[in-house]
C-alpha cells in the first residue's frame, strides 16, 4: 500500500510556518489525497503528549479509515517497549527504528541483546520491527544483524537514499536488503553543484526527476507482490519563505503519489 509519513509534512509541521499542521491535520490531508496509510515517524510530540491526546489521535485515524505505522530511533529496551505500547494504542503493526538512537550508539552485540529481549513481545503482539538503512551502519552489517537474529518480525526499512553518504550505491543497497525488506521509504534524490562550482549538495528531488532508479527497486524488492508498504517522504530544503516551502512540499507529495500510482 502507498502511504504518507510525517517527513512528507516536515515543513507543514514546523514552527517556521505561521500555523503548523497538527498530527490529526496531517491525517486529514492524507485522506484528502486518497491515501489510507500514515507513518508517524520521528515525530517528537508523540512521546510527550498525554494518554488522552494519544487516544484522541488514534480515534481520529480510525474515523478517517487510516492505517497507522510508527517510527523512532534507537533500540534501548525502554524505547522499544514504549513504541510497542504506542503501537497498541494506534493498532499499528510496524515500528521503524534505527540501530543508533539520539543518545546511544550501541555495539552490534549490545543491540543484539536489546532486540532479542524485545522481540518476543513484538511477535506476540503481531508487530514488526523494521530497521532503516542509513549511513551510520553499513548495509552489509545491517543485513547480517537481521540474519543473525532470524525473526519474521524483524526486517529492514529500505531507504537507499541514506547510504550514499557512506559512499554506498543505492542499487547495491536495494539488492542486498531485498529479501528482508518490511517497509520502503520513497523519495528521490540528486546532486547539484554549489554556487561557484565548489562542491556539491546532495538533497531531495521531485520523484522521477532524480537519481533514484525506482523501477529497479520495484523489480528487485517486489513490494506490491509481497504487500510491503511504500511510504512517501521528502528531502525538501527551505524554499525561502513559508508559503513557497509549503506549496512545494505539497506539490512534491502529489508528484510522488502520481508517480507511484502510475507504476501499479
Automatic annotation (TrEMBL):
InterPro entries: IolE/XylAMocC-like, Xyl_isomerase-like_sf, Xyl_isomerase-like_TIM-brl. It holds the Pfam family AP_endonuc_2. Gene3D superfamilies: Divalent-metal-dependent TIM barrel enzymes (3.20.20.150). Residues 27-255 form the Xylose isomerase-like TIM barrel domain. Keywords: Carbohydrate metabolism. PANTHER family: HYDROXYPYRUVATE ISOMERASE, XYLOSE ISOMERASE. This is TIM barrel protein. It comes from Microbacterium rhizosphaerae.
Amino acid at each position: 500500500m502507498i502511504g504518507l509519513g510525517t517527513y512528507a509534512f516536515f515543513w507543514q509541521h514546523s514552527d517556521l510556518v505561521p500555523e503548523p499542521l497538527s498530527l490529526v491535520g496531517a491525517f486529514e490531508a492524507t485522506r484528502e489525497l486518497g491515501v489510507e496509510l500514515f507513518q508517524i515517524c520521528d515525530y517528537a510530540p508523540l512521546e510527550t503528549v498525554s494518554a488522552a491526546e494519544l487516544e484522541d489521535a488514534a480515534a481520529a485515524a480510525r474515523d478517517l479509515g487510516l492505517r497507522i505505522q510508527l517510527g523512532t530511533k534507537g533500540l534501548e529496551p525502554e524505547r522499544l517497549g514504549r513504541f510497542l505500547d504506542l503501537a497498541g494504542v494506534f493498532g499499528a503493526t510496524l515500528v521503524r527504528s534505527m540501530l543508533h538512537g539520539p543518545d546511544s550508539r550501541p555495539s552490534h552485540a549490545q543491540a543484539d541483546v536489546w532486540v532479542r529481549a524485545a522481540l518476543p513481545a513484538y511477535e506476540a503482539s503481531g508487530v514488526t520491527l523494521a530497521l532503516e538503512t542509513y549511513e551510520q551502519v553499513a548495509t552489509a552489517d545491517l543485513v547480517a544483524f537481521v540474519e543473525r537474529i532470524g525473526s519474521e518480525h524483524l526486517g529492514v526499512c529500505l531507504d537507499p537514499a541514506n547510504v550514499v553518504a557512506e559512499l554506498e550505491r543505492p542499487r547495491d543497497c536495494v539488492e542486498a536488503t531485498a529479501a528482508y525488506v518490511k517497509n520502503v521509504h520513497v523519495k528521490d534524490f540528486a546532486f547539484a553543484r554549489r554556487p561557484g562550482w565548489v562542491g556539491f549538495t546532495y538533497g531531495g528531488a521531485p520523484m522521477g526527476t532524480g537519481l533514484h532508479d525506482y523501477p529497479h527497486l520495484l523489480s528487485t524488492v517486489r513490494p506490491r507482490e509481497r504487500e510491503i508498504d511504500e511510504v512517501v517522504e521528502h528531502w525538501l530544503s527551505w524554499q525561502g519563505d513559508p508559503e513557497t516551502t509549503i506549496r512545494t512540499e505539497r506539490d512534491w507529495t502529489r508528484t510522488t503519489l502520481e508517480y507511484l500510482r502510475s507504476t501499479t
